[in-house]
Protein backbone atom coordinates (compact mmCIF):
# COMPACT_ATOMS: atom_id res chain seq x y z
CA UNK A 1 0.00 0.00 0.00
CA UNK A 2 2.89 2.39 0.57
CA UNK A 3 3.66 2.43 -3.17
CA UNK A 4 0.03 3.25 -4.00
CA UNK A 5 0.02 5.97 -1.32
CA UNK A 6 3.21 7.47 -2.78
CA UNK A 7 1.88 7.44 -6.34
CA UNK A 8 -1.38 9.03 -5.24
CA UNK A 9 0.47 11.70 -3.27
CA UNK A 10 2.72 12.52 -6.25
CA UNK A 11 -0.31 12.83 -8.54
CA UNK A 12 -2.03 15.11 -6.04
CA UNK A 13 1.11 17.28 -5.91
CA UNK A 14 1.15 17.47 -9.71
CA UNK A 15 -2.49 18.55 -9.63
CA UNK A 16 -1.81 21.14 -6.93
CA UNK A 17 1.11 22.60 -8.86
CA UNK A 18 -0.97 22.68 -12.05
CA UNK A 19 -3.85 24.46 -10.30
CA UNK A 20 -1.42 26.91 -8.73
CA UNK A 21 -0.01 27.72 -12.16
CA UNK A 22 -3.52 28.14 -13.56
CA UNK A 23 -4.57 30.37 -10.66
CA UNK A 24 -1.52 32.62 -10.55
CA UNK A 25 -0.41 32.72 -14.18
CA UNK A 26 -3.24 31.30 -16.29
CA UNK A 27 -0.87 28.56 -17.47
CA UNK A 28 -2.11 24.96 -17.71
CA UNK A 29 0.99 22.76 -17.59
CA UNK A 30 -0.81 19.48 -18.34
CA UNK A 31 -2.54 20.96 -21.40
CA UNK A 32 0.77 22.42 -22.57
CA UNK A 33 2.59 19.11 -22.25
CA UNK A 34 -0.09 16.74 -23.53
CA UNK A 35 -2.51 18.88 -25.55
CA UNK A 36 -5.69 20.63 -24.58
CA UNK A 37 -8.14 17.90 -23.51
CA UNK A 38 -6.45 15.23 -25.57
CA UNK A 39 -7.11 11.67 -24.52
CA UNK A 40 -3.84 11.54 -22.58
CA UNK A 41 -4.45 14.83 -20.75
CA UNK A 42 -7.96 13.63 -19.86
CA UNK A 43 -6.42 10.48 -18.37
CA UNK A 44 -3.96 12.60 -16.35
CA UNK A 45 -6.78 14.81 -15.03
CA UNK A 46 -8.82 11.72 -14.16
CA UNK A 47 -5.92 10.07 -12.33
CA UNK A 48 -5.23 13.26 -10.39
CA UNK A 49 -8.89 13.44 -9.38
CA UNK A 50 -9.03 9.81 -8.30
CA UNK A 51 -5.79 10.29 -6.38
CA UNK A 52 -7.26 13.26 -4.57
CA UNK A 53 -10.24 11.21 -3.48
CA UNK A 54 -7.93 8.37 -2.43
CA UNK A 55 -5.76 10.79 -0.42
CA UNK A 56 -8.81 11.69 1.66
CA UNK A 57 -8.36 8.27 3.24
CA UNK A 58 -5.01 9.47 4.65
CA UNK A 59 -6.94 11.63 7.13
CA UNK A 60 -8.98 8.66 8.33
CA UNK A 61 -5.86 6.51 8.65
CA UNK A 62 -4.06 9.18 10.64
CA UNK A 63 -7.04 9.77 12.91
CA UNK A 64 -7.49 6.10 13.83
CA UNK A 65 -3.82 5.11 13.97
CA UNK A 66 -2.83 7.78 16.49
CA UNK A 67 -5.65 7.00 18.93
CA UNK A 68 -4.19 5.25 21.96
From TrEMBL:
UniProt KW keywords: Membrane, Transmembrane, Transmembrane helix
UniProt source species: Clostridium vincentii
Protein name as catalogued: DUF378 domain-containing protein
Pfam families in UniProt: DUF378 (PF04070)
Lineage, highest ranks first: Bacteria, Bacillati, Bacillota, Clostridia, Eubacteriales
Transmembrane segment boundaries: 7-27, 39-60
Keyword Transmembrane helix included in the entry's annotation: yes
Amino acid sequence: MKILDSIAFILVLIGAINWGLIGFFGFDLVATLFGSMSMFSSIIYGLVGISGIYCLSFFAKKRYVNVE
